[in-house]
Amino acid sequence: MAEKKKITKPGWKNLPEGDLIIGGGTAMQFKTGDWRSERPVHIPEKCINCLTCWVYCPDSAVIVKDGKVIGFNYDYCKGCGICAHECPVKGKAIKMVPEREAKIETCK
Amino acid sequence: MAKGNIVARTGNEAMAEAMRQINPDVVAAYPITPATEIVQIFASYVADGLVSTEFVPVESEHSAMSACIGSSAAGGRTMTGTSSQGLALMAEMLYIAAGLRLPIVLAVVNRALSSPINIHCDHSDTMMVRDSGWIQIFSENSQEAYDNMIQAVKIAEKAAIPVIVTTDGFIISHGMERIEILDDADVKNFVGEYKPKDYLLKLEEPITAGALDLTDYYFEHKRQQIEGFKASKAVILDVAKEFAVIAGRSYGLFEKYRLDDAEIALVAMGSTAGTTKVVVDELRQKGLKAGLLKPRVFRPFPKEEILEALKKLKAIAVMDRSDSMNGHEGPLCAEIKAAFYDIGVNKPVLNYIYGLGGREIRPEDIALVFSELSEVAGGKEKPKVSYLGVRE
User: Fold this and answer.
1) Does pLDDT of A1 surpass 60?
2) Same domain for B380 and B276?
3) Total domain count, chain B
4) Of A12, A23, A26, which has the smallest distance from its Cβ to B224's Cβ?
């Protein structure tokens, strides 16, 4: 098993005053994927690449390459399910799968 | 040496005058008796083009402080005013302003909290938010209200802590007094241009303000805020020194009145301190060694300094214009007694709850307190807490 990396967080003397976060684009450093209880799974054979999911995703976690959906960024996807809900394809090209099942699947 | 112009002003007019001279970027306010006039008069200055302030008339005090927080975080010098229920409605936002270290200045005209509903003076409103992280400066009269408002801007910005400046409802807010006001140019020069370090409209260096701060950072940020609060005592004194140069009037964390050689003394805040001074003078003529300590800065509480000033006295009466509803004593008395514990001194400290809901406090009442204090200094027992001027 890999050794757990010790993270040292700044003490009160080294933080910016007033609960400020200095600098832009810092949300990139905050991986919200571990909030997820269900994950969207893309079904390419059903997908019509309308990109509705890409428009609706509140976390910009739908990965699109050359105009085609190729999957999801699970580092940031919170599993809200909006993509699956909005998918206009009959029978849905995005399926929400419980995180536990998805993880078991990955281990196999 | 005073350089000012002598005018007649009520406390509210004096505070509005100070705001005109400060010319803040934003004032967001909602009216409430007896503080209404401050922002009403100021709104007329805006309408008449005497200031360049953006005036935001909002729909509640909660919104007023919310708008002030937005404006201050954006980088604007921001002020407002309120009283009693209005301050209560602002309470949630007061903590947020303090935590974000926003240098907002708030004029509070002290008024009793409901219920029963009452529009007159006591200190229960300001005391309710005493732990909100705002500096609290009490004024004895219109002159001090004016002077404190001008100093508050500089204190808030240097310490990165919001400041409440209080007056006593009606007694000061509506009482016409002779005051000295400074030249507009002197005030403008004194407060200077506001140059915040980090602010939301500084587009070239973006920031996030008010982010979620859970178990892993909240404590560190609070610890930092506490340290800033402790350090603000020195800032208040520095600003007072600078102010004395332009105004010829000196301020400290508290005022000592005939206290150095006193044997018995009152501790009183706000307008009651003025009444007490008259009584002290009368008692001194009769040969009684009476004195007064008037806390000006209640938050941060100048514990060590007040102890130093009080420790030689034989007996002390602490005057509280509000009750803590803690079942034993008033908030000012609790602070002072706790301070004495730290230096191992067990001194007779009597607590007088007085003036609730605007009940008059007359020189005779103060004289009665001094006479009871004399008896206690002579070894007699008296109740620890008395309710001065209430009908039994």
Assistant:
1) no
2) yes
3) 2
4) A12
What six digits make up the tokens of B169? 């409802």
pTM over 0.95: no
Using alpha carbons only, what angle is made at residue B372 by residues B371 and B374, rounded to the nearest 5 degrees? 65
Size of interface A-B (CB pairs under 8 A): 51
Q: Predicted ipTM?
A: 0.86
Band the pLDDT of B1: cuts 50, 70, 90.
very low
Task: Determine the distance in angstroms separating the CA of A70 from the nearest CA of chain B, rounded to an integer.
Answer: 32
Containing domain of residue B49, as a range? 5-247
**Chain B hits for A18, Cβ within 8 Å:** 99-102, 160, 209, 221
**Final residue of a structural domain among B205, B226, B247:** B247
When mean pLDDT is compared across B16-25, B55-64, B294-303, B341-350, the lowest value belongs to: B341-350
The alpha-helical segments, DSSP class H, found in B102-254 are 124-128, 142-159, 184-191, 218-247
* Ramachandran region, residue B142 (left: φ > 0; alpha: ψ -120 to 50; beta: rest): alpha
Question: What CATH number did the domain enclosing B259 receive?
Answer: 3.40.50.920
Q: What percent of chain B has pLDDT over 70?
A: 99
For range B23-32, the mean pLDDT: 98
Q: Which residue of A has its CA nearest to B98?
A: A18
- Picking from B229, B247, B265, the residue at the C-terminal end of a domain is B247
Reported as a single tens digit per residue, the pLDDT across A55-89 is 999 999 999 999 999 999 999 999 999 999 999 99
Mutation for B interface: A14, A19, A35, most B CBs within 10 A:
A19
Query: Is A28 at the interface with chain B, CB within 8 A?
Result: no
pLDDT value of residue A21: 92
Q: Report the CATH number at residue A81.
A: 3.30.70.20
* Claim to verify: residue B107 and residue B157 sit in the same structural domain: yes
In a domain, A19, yes or no: no
Task: Round to whole Å and give the CA distance between B315 and B180.
Answer: 36
Pairing of strands B163-168, B135-138: parallel
A19 with B99: Cβ contact below 8 A: yes
Q: Cβ of A90 under 8 Å from any chain B Cβ?
A: no
Position A7 pLDDT exceeds 80: no
Question: What's the distance, CA B105 to chain centroid?
Answer: 11
Mean pLDDT computed over every residue of chain B: 97
Domain that holds residue A98: 35-107
B211 in contact with A, Cβ within 8 Å: yes
Gap between the Cα atoms of B340 and B264, Å rounded: 16
Is A13's CB within 8 Å of B211's CB? no
